[in-house]
Amino acid sequence: MTDAVLTFADIRQTFPAPGDGAPTRVLDGIDFAVGRGEFVAVIGPSGCGKSTLLQMAAGLLAPTGGEVRHRGRRIAGVNRAVGFVPQQAKLFPWKTLAENVELPLLLRGIGPAERRDRVGAALRAVGLDGFEGHYPGQLSGGMQKRGSIARTLIYEPDVILMDEPFGALDAQTRMVMQDDLQALSRAAGATIVFITHDITEAVVLADRVVVLSQRPSRVLADVAIDLPRPRDVFEPFRNPGFDAAYDAVWSRFRTQIGLPSRGPRVREPAP
Amino acid sequence: MTDLAPSTAAQAPAPRRTIRGYAARLVPLLPGLALIAFWQWASGRLVREVYVSKPTAVAARLYELFATGEIVPHLWTTAQELVLGYAIGVAGGVAAGYALGRSPRLARVFEPYVMAFYGVPKIALAPLFIIWFGIGPGSKIALSAIMVFFLVFYNVYTGVRAVDREIVDLTLVMGANQRQLTRHVYLPAAAPFVMLGMRLAIPYSVIGVIVGEFTSATQGLGLFIHVASSTYDPAGVFAGIAILLAFVLGAGFLAARLERRLLRWRTLSGVGPSEI
Ligand SMILES: Nc1ncnc2c1ncn2[C@@H]1O[C@H](COP(=O)(O)OP(=O)(O)OP(=O)(O)O)[C@@H](O)[C@H]1O
Ligand SMILES: [Mg+2]
């Protein structure tokens, strides 16, 4: 634990209900830490508070109980040492791709020559060189997503927070992006917290998978994934040890889903 | 001559295309021309000319007004009132809309008042404004400014409030301070709404000024039209209206040009409203 970059310590969160209803307890004592250079995936049922946890790590929301620590210091106020990749790419529609990717450097007061070099390198790294002058509306969904990732990688944040970054992509693009992310994060030695619904994605990408329970949620399991790298994201089942790792996560996760009513449509997929 | 021929031939397609392009642009003029032709024909046949004048008479009157310089002082007065009223209204609307849009606390206090005044028919204020600001340009500027203000205010306020919260948060995490947030997020996000408000406000500024001049004035196009209509000079009325029309169209054209230039990203992305 001494090497922890990001620590969630007994996080509790209650949201007031609209009107006079009883407040919603969302997080109920979340404890886990993310080590330097570690890739941690967080999975949990919809609405269990995964996005809420990332908001706290970014300093955009103060937990009602407990604290998030970044390199030992309690986060109070916007945390500029992290990078945030949201589910939708959220590029600035009024800026060209190059201007989008350049913005964090501009905001941090980095000079024009260095900015130009780093924008060039960042766009090459995600395979978008040649599209500098395009506006986001002129790019495909996958390209926008790459842009969004480049915009985060470019300032080399201490921790990268990703909230279901590939959720909205088609299956092929998604696998390509997963492969790229694996390569980029290994090259950069980045520390990543990665939220996903997809167990395969979690297992194939992460060093550890944190499984959250239904609301009010707690950490149900914290599973280390010791598959050798680089991993094959295109045919995950070919990675030696994948099945066992998948089972370890699924056996904990299955207890949390498929429970809510609406009987006839719920079917348990075979692992 | 002979060696020029091939190059002329090679260039032929391009001019043809532009000619067709111009022709396409002229199509919207056809209904207007048809209306003018019908007006010319009907005047004196279906309706007595003393009621509706006729296009040739209006054109002659326009020429006369400019040739003798009779219209110039009126034009000058009205133009000044328009420009000032519009500018004050836009500046006030943008500033107030932006401030209330950015600050929920200010909005909580002032929004109900602004919305209440928004519902007041501003034209009803014309006589009051004459009392407060005199029969000179002041009252017309005030009337036009207040009409423009509400329109621009409402658009800008809505625009600033609609800024994507997630983009704001992202920008903060990327390292933006409040000033940078304004420059890189709020202003560009609000710009389409500012432009829309500015464009919609053009005719309102004209209405404000003309109503003011109708009510009471010593000079101005509104007064000119008023006098023309009370002295049975329909050609004069239509000439005055034609000048106003030209002004509104010209200003609208400039605004659309400015909008296209400033909001290039919207047209390029194909996400712009269809009318720009
Ligand atoms: N600002 C808020 N006010 C009130 N309730 C909120 C707020 N933000 C989140 N919640 C509630 O907290 C719960 C968790 O939300 P959160 O977005 O963190 O879920 P999630 O785990 O990311 O879900 P998903 O996987 O569907 O994205 C939800 O029940 C939501 O209604
Ligand atoms: Mg979420």
UniProtKB/TrEMBL annotation, chain B:
It comes from the Bacteria. Coiled coil: none annotated. GO terms for biological process: transmembrane transport. The chain crosses the membrane at residues 22-42, 83-101, 113-135, 141-163, 184-202, 235-256. It is a multi-pass membrane protein. Keywords: Cell membrane, Membrane, Transmembrane, Transmembrane helix, Transport. Residues 75-255 form the ABC transmembrane type-1 domain. PROSITE patterns: ABC_TM1. GO terms for cellular component: plasma membrane. Its main location: membrane. Pfam families: BPD_transp_1 (PF00528). It is found in: Cell membrane. InterPro entries: MetI-like, MetI-like_sf. Belongs to the binding-protein-dependent transport system permease family. This is ABC transporter permease. It comes from Methylobacterium terricola.
